Amino acid sequence: MQSKIEEAIDLLSKDWKIEPIIRDFVLGKRNDASDFQIKINDVIFHIPYLSVDDGYILWKCYWPDCHNCCNRQGRLPLTSSDLITISKNMKYGRVSDFIKNETNVNTWEEKGPTGNSIIMTMINLKRKSDETQAEDGTHIRCRFLDQKGYCGLHPSRPGVCYLYPFSSWLENEKGRARVHATFQFTGDCPGFYFAKSVDEMKEILTEYSKVIYDYTMSSSRTNRENFGYVSMGL
Ligand code: SF4
Ligand code: SF4
């Protein structure tokens, strides 16, 4: 049976040229991949390195020509800061009314950075006004995406939208919180490419390091404030 990632990348390949090396890596067909770590500002980025071809998997965004991540949105978890800014943007006087009308509370399981299982509970912004909890994690065109590819919530769109296609986590390093980030390979983004040096992505990594750091700290605060939680399973 075809995996969800394979389905997604096949769909993507109808409109975008995906390098065979990227396709193979995303589908888990490369066994020469290792983790190259680079620290930029306060974030440690984990970039895949392919030893046989001696190069890295890097990324750039094709927006506004592409808006696939908004067109095939899987889930929009909100941080406590998102709840305040987006409810204001949507003209709600009370955050509790916004939560009641515009969000679903969902629990889901994700693979963690070391392949472990992570249980997450968050308040998720509905991607269509009548979204049900059963649709959580399915791909839906986000209701805020307009015909030209612009986001109707911008600039107060959810922090997670600024983060894509990175995902991030916090680790305790000798008593200090250290933020880590890596790419999400869902098969939905045409921006990944193979390159011989990480240098050409340094500017983007620098730009994202602040976004990722702020989002990860805000996400951790959200959990501490009991708006959501993350628990590490087996
Ligand atoms: S992040 Fe990827 S999917 Fe989203 S707009 Fe950019 S290129 Fe497209
Ligand atoms: S909220 Fe905006 S940026 Fe986020 S998925 Fe929807 S349209 Fe895209």
Task: Describe the structure in your own words.
With 234 residues, this protein is an alpha+beta fold. The chain has one domain (4-232). Helix content is 29%, strand content 27%. It has 7 helices and 9 strands. The strands form 2 sheets. Strands 1, 2, 3, 6, 7 and 8 form a 6-stranded mixed beta sheet that branches. Strand 4 and strand 5 (117-125) form a beta hairpin. The model has no long low-confidence stretch (mean pLDDT 92).
Looking at the structure, what is the overall shape? globular
Contiguous helical run count: 7
Strand content: 25-35%
Distance between the termini: 26 Å
Secondary structure class reads alpha+beta
Percent helix: 25-40%
Secondary-structure blueprint:
Blueprint: H1 4-13, H2 20-26, E1 33-40, E2 43-50, E3 55-59, H3 68-71, H4 80-89, H5 95-102, E4 103-111, E5 117-125, H6 159-163, E6 166-173, E7 176-183, E8 192-195, H7 202-224, E9 229-232
Parallel strand pairs: 2-7
Antiparallel strand pairs: 1-2, 2-3, 3-8, 4-5, 5-9, 6-7
The chain binds iron/sulfur cluster (SF4) (2 copies).
Residues 70, 73, 142, 144-145, 151, 153, 157-158, 161 line the site of one iron/sulfur cluster.
